[in-house]
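Provenance and format

Records in this collection were gathered into a single text stream. Each protein contributes a sequence line and a token line. The two records reproduced below are adjacent in the stream.
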Amino acid sequence: MAYETIIFEPGPVARITLNRPDRLNSFTVQMHNELRAVLDNLGKARVVVITGAGRGFCAGQDLNDRAVAPGKAVDLGDTVEQCWNPLVKTLTSLRQPVIAQVNGVAAGAGANIALACDIVVAARSAKFIQSFSALGLIPDSGGSWVLPRLVGQARALGLALTGEPLPADKAAEWGLIWKTVEDEALEGEVDAIADRLASLPPLGLAAIKSLIRTTGGRTLEQELDLERDEMRRLGFTDDYREGVAAFLEKRPPTFTGR
């Protein structure tokens, strides 16, 4: 299928490039629809990488796409409900690990889409901007949920209220993202992480993602019980047996996802 606003490269590492560089890869309804179609049909992908074309990762919502006339009202809740919320839910619930390769500015919903990914690797020149307050809005796309959980209430309020750009280095220092690398090393670093994840047992990776993403709703006792149940389930898989056999036989393992 041909896409106009994204580039999709299928494979064990599925690569998705937001491809509206003239608009800093800001989202239109068409981009949402094309990205949804790709994420719903990842084939045999074991890892997903999302990045942006040109000098930016994503500037969030393309305000021109809404064509709001001066003095006219628009239902922003409808855009959130129909487009942004489903995207965040999809990214966080995919069985595959999702890596955000943040190659430049990530602003507004674009910043929060990056933060919805499982691993965020940013170029040192990148910045994360909660650019909602200047328009009289609140951080959407999960922003108000994820920010205080990752950086604490004080820093979350500072970022959301002021809209001050957060440099990638400080984002990593604060624990907002996984790591930063020099700009020229970004693609190679993400490739190495993606290839590493693609070589690991996919059932185990999916379980790790699910447990860590849902742990906030459980007590320690509930978590211990769930860990027991997951270890029991995974211990009966072919991949676990293959991993043990490969370790004992001192050979590379071959995992099948069964």
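Adjacent record:
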Amino acid sequence: MNNEATNVNEAEQRRAARKRFQAHYRALYDELLEILFQLDPIRVHRTNTDKFVPEATSILARLRDARSPEDVEQIIQQELRRWYGRRRLANQDPERLTDATIAICTAWNRFLDSSGS
């Protein structure tokens, strides 16, 4: 009987941890959307954060592979090129790209700290 109670308690703890992780991940996703909208390194979307959903999603999916701010900047550039092409990327604002990189690195590090990853 005691073993059953332990298993139930462990399952509840795992479920609660999963919900916390999902909430942190959702907050990170929302923050990435806002960063891309506010800083818009290639000035493509001025009116609606929802337009950045594909970019935020593809950048977020690759952040675990980043080991440095340079990696994050490269991911951002690659994903923007993927979504908009080289010609559009030629219009990028290097200062906005740097600001976006710093903001995304900060958000990502905060997420890692809060999720215990």
